[in-house]
Design brief:
The chain has one domain. Helix 3 packs across helix 8, helix 4 crosses helix 6 and helix 5 runs antiparallel to helix 6. It has 255 residues and is mainly alpha-helical. The longest helix is centred in the last third of the chain and has 27 residues.
Length: 255
């Protein structure tokens, strides 16, 4: 079907890419948050990290537009003001680090931090009257999210590590994530282009996958309005566990 187009022709890529992009769309809506971080590493199994990241970027931006249209009013403005500037700082740092630090090594660090956070939450669950984490923790998580988002689109674990303990409603978390990552992904375009990642083959491959991305966001938003807070947090933590484990494995495998 695509023999005449300059797109990725490996059939195994499409076997992996379609469910991965559908999952990414659902996760980008706020449903099963954290699973977006699995998508680029999974796609990279067939085409490598740089090409997988380049193919995913236009798709993530399309998902951002769809998510913003439906979730903008439910965002937490204070969190957006706190996290976005430091996420953009992380994009700048990620650009400088690109090529200096292997993507798998950075992914492994993020995976280890994510699993450490989850272990701390399970072993030492916070008390009901515990105050929120200090602002410097949010700034650090926002910066880490920007760095890892630039390299492997794995910004969700640091973001969720700060936001989940705030015990916001599922809709507010999903909306805040939509705004944060829309800003982060938009900031990646010029650096990605300058690094030569947005070539015709990658862009056309993204275009073919766009209907799948839109369907994933639509499904995710529908489910986000139906899911109970208890199950939302269970899925969010499960997503962080799976993402953290995969990212850590990628880092250890590169040693």
């Amino acid at each position: 079907m695509f023999d005449k187009l300059p797109v990725v022709h490996d059939p195994w890529f499409w076997v992996v890419a379609v469910p991965v992009v559908l999952l990414a769309g659902m996760s980008k809506s706020g449903f099963a948050s954290g699973l977006t971080s699995l998508c680029t590493p999974m796609m990279a199994l067939t085409v490598g990290v740089p090409r997988a990241a380049a193919i995913m970027l236009p798709l993530l931006m399309l998902m951002d537009v769809a998510g913003l249209q439906q979730l903008w009013r439910q965002r937490d403005p204070a969190l957006v003001r706190l996290l976005v500037p430091f996420g953009l700082l992380g994009i700048g740092l990620g650009t400088l680090m690109f090529g200096l630090l292997p993507a798998d090594a950075l992914a492994g660090i993020v995976g280890a931090l994510t699993l450490t956070f989850l272990a701390q939450r399970l072993l030492f669950p916070p008390k009901a009257n515990r105050p929120p984490a200090p602002l410097w923790v949010g700034r650090l998580c926002g910066t880490l999210s920007g760095i890892t988002s630039f390299v492997v689109h794995a910004g969700s674990p640091p973001f969720m590590a700060y936001v989940l303990p705030l015990k916001l409603s599922p809709l507010k978390i999903g909306a805040t994530a939509a705004v944060f990552f829309a800003a982060i992904n938009a900031a990646k375009v010029l650096p990605y282009a300058a690094l030569g990642l947005l070539d015709l083959r990658n862009l056309l491959t993204s275009v073919v996958l766009m209907p799948v991305a839109a369907l994933g966001v639509w499904l995710g938003v529908k489910l986000l309005h139906l899911i109970s807070p208890t199950w939302f947090y269970r899925l969010a933590y499960a997503g962080m566990f799976l993402s953290g484990s995969k990212l850590l494995w990628d880092g250890l495998r590169s040693l």
